[in-house]
Design a protein that fits this description.
This protein is α/β, with parallel strands linked by helices and 493 residues long. 36% of the residues lie in helices and 16% in strands. The strands form 2 sheets. It has an 11-stranded mixed sheet with strand order 1-2-3-4-6-5-9-10-11-12-13, with helices on both faces. The radius of gyration is 23 Å and the shape is globular. One of its GO terms (biological process) is lipid homeostasis.
């Protein structure tokens, strides 16, 4: 029977077929969202049970938050809350559709709009975790810590750090957010509105306009974070960002320096100038298999194909296996099978949900994580007084870039410009790019020192290596691509 004849038969109903396919896709989406929520909840339990630095018991509350207590009769030491914050679509510079709205691929699929309802009035959702420590009540006036994750990660990549950090400073309050387009935050279609603005950053002792697309992509995350801050009535914050989250933290600090008390860059992407780095020389030192893979990645990258998009093309079983192997290879410090399983589920479902924020990657970074507008030249112009870099000892992000930024700032401060940031560079032992998971205690101490609270650390605390002036020390392993577990092509950063 010809297809045209078949389609005319009573048994065939195109509307039913389309409806069935749509409902099936919707069911898969809902299932993955629930799976990610379940993994998030499990990682929160690990945070409360194993990474609080106190002996505790868990006590759930009717509102969904959880507190921990030293025993059933004592005062809770921490409260951990999952929350969603609505921010107006109109504040985020994304391209609007014909009806004036920005289509959202995750939140918003649960209901149909009324015929006369204005879609432009819809809100985006920023998903996050808030941890409140009740140990140091006298420090509540301090600025809270806000943590931003890296590419293809989410707020719960900091699950090992949240409680310990809240114990020592930040007014006892630490937030970790799923940035717009990732995790359980809204995932709008990522098409920026390019507004031609003249913005110059010092580069090679001259100023040149920032690429319009890069600036537009940065502003999506900058404005969504600013709307979140306003919604929570936070006057000033200590802002910490990992990898690409570090890059975007700098972009936010450029526009809203009055809201950033201190900036903490955790193995940040986009710092060095690739014109000053022998990229091809490093590739020649790498293994043949790595060079082949990186060549393919470059071609796909130029076409806008992201690692997460590639993962979504694989059968689910194969995709899950790939992520599980990645966690096992990159994070040997996680020895608990249940912990590793839930982190793998968290990472896989994050990548398997519809792509959104990931689509900005090639507008911000080059394939080898160099910035299109390198941060090394932008940091000296920040109006934030204190900036810290924290790298892993075996990090594939090059610590010398952070040291170069420090040297540029120190030079200008010596010349008498006191408005230039004071920069520190720290190294965390036995850790790579995912330092917050690999050596969480020393990572926490590095963050606390970056906040200017070193005096609050116990005497026996393992303190990070502090770079004095240059990388003359042999503390950091030389960045080498494709010759170690840390340097293999990864599915996230």
């Amino acid at each position: 029977m010809k297809l045209s004849t078949f389609m005319k038969t009573p048994a065939f109903n195109m509307t039913s077929l389309v409806s069935s396919l749509f409902n099936s896709k919707k069911a898969v989406l809902s299932s993955r969202i629930e799976s990610m929520k379940s993994a998030e909840s499990a990682l929160m339990t690990f945070a409360m049970n194993r990474f609080s630095d106190v002996d505790i018991m868990l006590h759930p509350h009717p509102d969904g938050s959880v507190s921990n207590q030293k025993d059933a009769d004592s005062t809770a030491t921490h409260t951990l809350r999952i929350f969603d914050t609505k921010i107006p679509q109109s504040a985020v510079p994304l391209k609007k559709g014909l009806n004036g709205s920005t289509e959202c691929q995750v939140y918003g699929h649960e209901r149909k709009k009324k015929r006369n309802e204005k879609a432009a009035d819809d809100d985006f959702v920023i998903h996050g975790i808030e941890v409140t420590s009740h140990i140091h009540q006298e420090d509540k006036t301090e600025a809270p810590l806000v943590l931003l994750h890296g590419y293809m990660n989410g707020a719960l990549y900091f699950y090992r750090n949240l409680l310990g950090l809240s114990n020592q400073c930040f007014g006892g309050t630490v937030y970790a957010l799923d940035m717009l387009g990732w995790g359980l935050s809204s995932r709008p279609r990522f098409e920026t509105t390019v507004e031609k603005k003249k913005r110059g950053f010092t580069k090679k002792k001259s100023e040149e306009a920032v690429n319009d697309e890069t600036y537009a992509a940065e502003q999506v995350f900058v404005e969504s974070l600013e709307e979140w801050r306003k919604a929570h009535k936070i006057d000033k914050m200590v802002l910490g960002g990992h990898s690409m989250g570090g890059y975007l933290s700098v972009a936010y600090s450029e526009k809203y320096p009055e809201r950033v008390e201190r900036l903490i860059l955790l193995s940040p992407a986009g710092v060095p100038d690739d014109q000053k780095v022998d990229v091809e020389g490093r590739l020649k030192e790498a293994s043949m298999s790595y060079r082949v893979v990186i060549g393919l990645v470059r071609k796909l990258y130029d076409k806008g194909v992201t690692p997460a998009a590639f993962l979504r093309t694989l059968p689910e079983r194969r995709g899950r296996t790939m992520v599980e192997n990645y966690i096992e290879r990159r994070l040997p410090a996680i020895t608990c099978p249940d912990e590793r399983k839930n982190l793998s589920e968290y990472l896989y479902t994050n990548a398997a949900l519809p792509g959104s924020g990931e689509d900005c990657l090639n507008k911000l970074l080059k394939p080898t994580a160099f910035g299109i507008n390198p941060l090394v030249y932008r940091i000296p112009s920040l109006k934030v007084k204190h900036v810290s870099f924290i790298y892993g000892q075996n990090d594939w992000m090059d610590p010398s870039a952070g040291v170069q930024a420090k040297e540029l700032c120190d030079m200008r401060r010596i010349e008498g410009n006191d408005d230039i940031p004071e920069v520190q560079v720290y190294g965390v032992r036995d850790a790579g790019h995912l330092l917050m998971l690999e050596n969480w205690k020393e990572f926490n101490n590095a963050v606390i020192m970056s906040a200017g609270k070193e005096h609050r650390l116990p005497r026996h605390a393992s303190k990070p290596f502090k770079v004095a002036e240059s990388l003359s020390s042999n503390f950091f392993s030389p960045p080498r691509w494709g010759n170690s577990k840390e340097e293999e092509v990864s599915v996230s950063s």
